[in-house]
Amino acid sequence: MKGNFLTKKGWLGIVTTVAVVASIAGTFAAWDTLTKTNTGNSTQLRQAVTLETTNSTAYTAANNDTYGSDVDPTYSGTVTFSATTPTRSDFHNQLVMAPTVKTSTTTDFTSATTVDTSKYSVAIKKDNTALTNNTDTSFTSGSDNTYTVSLTGLDKDTFSGQYIRVEIAGTLSQVAD
């Protein structure tokens, strides 16, 4: 036959090959198991860690009634943070504190002004030890961690006759040893 490129044997080979591929790719027996659910093992998730704080004491002046050009009043108060954290080997708790100072002409602070950090200096101590960068690298889990916050170097034009409020934002983390 002219025009026919494949012989009967050639066509038979192609049809057989297609049949084998189709049967391998898409045919399963009724007794084959094609789906399975892995139930896994149960794991208890740890409790959430919540950083808590109590209202700080009123800030008092150590030398408020002393006058003179060489007198730098120091105002100090305390703040307490607590949290229960999971115990992890080769990690320690760290609390970073970010102080913000606000002034107001009234005690209710409805029209408070946030003071630029260039107008005062702040120091935070734990157990009479100054913290570097306001960071406690030995935050104790499950206990009250009390800090003394001191303000000095107050700009007289900014603070004179004003009420002050010191807000301390704390961020707790676990850091590798």
Structure explained in plain terms:
Strand 4 (91-104) and strand 5 (113-114) form a beta hairpin. By secondary structure, the chain is mainly β. Strands 1, 2, 3, 6, 7 and 9 form a six-stranded antiparallel beta sheet that branches. Strands 4, 5, 8 and 10 form a four-stranded antiparallel beta sheet that branches. It is built from two helices and ten strands, in the order αβββββββββαβ. The protein has helices at residues 8-26, 156-159; strands at 52-54, 60-61, 75-82, 91-104, 113-114, 121-126, 129-130, 135-136, 145-152, 163-176. It has one domain (52-176).
Kindly provide the radius of gyration, computed on alpha-carbon positions and rounded to a whole number of angstroms. 36 Å
Query: N-to-C SSE series?
Result: HEEEEEEEEEHE
Q: What is the multimeric organization of the chains shown? A: single chain
Class from secondary-structure proportions: mainly beta
Strand content: 25-35%
Overall number of domains: 1
Level of helix content? 10-25%
Gap between N and C termini: 86 Å
Q: What is the number of helical segments per DSSP (H or I, 4+ residues)?
A: 2
Q: pLDDT average, as an integer? A: 81
Contiguous runs where pLDDT drops below 50 for at least 5 residues? none
What are the defining features of this structure?
single chain, 177 residues, mainly beta, 6-stranded antiparallel beta sheet, 4-stranded antiparallel beta sheet, elongated
Fold blueprint:
Layout (H helix, E strand, L loop, with lengths): L7 H19 L25 E3 L5 E2 L13 E8 L8 E14 L8 E2 L6 E6 L2 E2 L4 E2 L8 E8 L3 H4 L3 E14 L1
